[in-house]
Amino acid sequence: MWHTSTSPQAARATNIKNPIFLEDVPALAVPFVVTSEKRNVPGWSVAWLDRNFIVENLLPKLFESHFAVSDPPPYRIAIVSAERPHRVIYQSEPFSGEDLSSADLMVDLLPEVDGKLKRIGPQAIHIIAPETPQWRLVVKHRLGSVDAAVENLRSRNLGIGLGILCVLAAAVGLVLVAASRARSLARAQLEFAAAVSHELRTPLAVIRAAAYNLEEGIAVDRPRVRYYASLIKDAGRRLSKMVDQVLLFAETQSKERRIEVRSVPVAEVIENALDSVAATIVCDQWKAEKFIEPDLPPVLADPVLLSHCLQNILNNALKYGKVTHITPVKIMATRDLKKPEVQISVSDEGPGIDASDLPHIFNPFYRGINVEPDMAGSGLGLALVRRLMSIQNGDVSVKTGEHGGCTFVLRIPADGMKK
């Protein structure tokens, strides 16, 4: 640094100008004027710079502190010379000529210097200041341009917003579906309670009436006593069956029932189901025809539960299928040629099932729209069949003919059939 002045007590520096960058040296020169009692003496403060330190240490640190706000940094920068073609002094990442010509921002690092700062100092010290800055900062966004980055951010925000709206719409839809199902379940439970109450009242009324007649001595002869005793027996059996049905359904819903899956002959299951149904319904009122495919493999099932499923379907056919000796219920057991399963089908020639009832026929507590109000039943039988078949790794389906008739099909895994 060099300057001219008088005594330190009488002189002071004034009119300090902006620094001038002298790239060729390289150095920073700051012009000033020393004011004394007699005259104003111009001077320069000169700081020589280490180019390697600036390029290799200072500029990278400045880039990290001001532009590297994330990983990877959103911006690329370069320090270039002002004259064309641009000469790259420093770059955070490689810059092409197209990048330099399409930069998002180009800023002069030092303010422009006017001609007044061109001074020739005393004692033949000459400092010639350039008229324009020699280094410029070039900034370019990583996505290509700031406009592209803004558009990308806008698109991302729109996508996030649409996603949130879709989630909200789905949540509203789920709430509506849940509310609808809750209303349907509540309505079905009320109908179930009404049906069960009716079903309980009927046999209880029979039991009370028969017991009253026996108690009052209305029936004194042996045949009449036996008649009232049979009424009480049948009503008790009906009550027991209903209670067992409800309890079994509750067990399957709570998943607490333990099942015993083993190899079971299909013919044995069918015979047990027919015997159980015949024990509750007078045999001369209906007829069953059965066909069991020769060499039919046994099935993997719980024999009690599978027999219960078949009983429920048989009772359903006898109740709604108008089964008689002329139009018997038909039971057929065959193997599935495509899957390792055995199919047990139960068919009747009744009026069939209404098309509007088919999607709901296996729902708990559901009763068809054409079912007579005084028809016995709680709407649990078919729902219980589906649940019991499911826990045995089986399934149940139903189809109805165009001119009436209905067929229920039980599918159960076969034992020993290859997949």
Q: How far is it from the N-terminal to the C-terminal residue, by CA?
A: 97 Å
Count of helix runs:
7
In terms of quaternary structure, what is this?
single chain
The number of distinct structural domains comes to 3
Q: Please tell me the overall pLDDT.
A: 78
Residue ranges: pLDDT <50 for 5 or more in a row?
A: 1-11, 114-125
Largest sheet: 5 strands, mixed
CATH topology of the largest domain: Heat Shock Protein 90
In short:
The chain has 419 residues and is an alpha+beta fold. It has helices at residues 51-66, 97-101, 146-215, 222-254, 266-280, 303-320, 381-391, and strands spanning 12-14, 20-22, 27-35, 40-48, 75-81, 88-91, 105-108, 119-120, 126-127, 135-141, 262-264, 288-292, 299-301, 329-335, 341-348, 395-400, 406-413. The protein folds into three domains: 12-142, no CATH class; 145-257, Helix Hairpins (Orthogonal Bundle), CATH 1.10.287; 262-413, Heat Shock Protein 90 (2-Layer Sandwich).
Folded structure, characterized:
The protein has 419 residues and is α+β, with helices and mostly antiparallel strands. The protein has 3 domains: 131 residues, no CATH class; 113 residues, Helix Hairpins (Orthogonal Bundle), CATH 1.10.287.130; 152 residues, Heat Shock Protein 90 (2-Layer Sandwich). Helix content is 40%, strand content 21%. It has a 5-stranded mixed beta sheet with strand order 12-14-15-17-16, covered by helices on one side. Strands 1, 2, 3 and 4 form a 4-stranded antiparallel beta sheet that branches. Strands 6-5-10-7 form a 4-stranded antiparallel beta sheet. A hairpin with a 6-residue loop joins strand 5 and strand 6. The longest helix is centred in the middle third of the chain and has 70 residues. The N terminus is likely disordered.
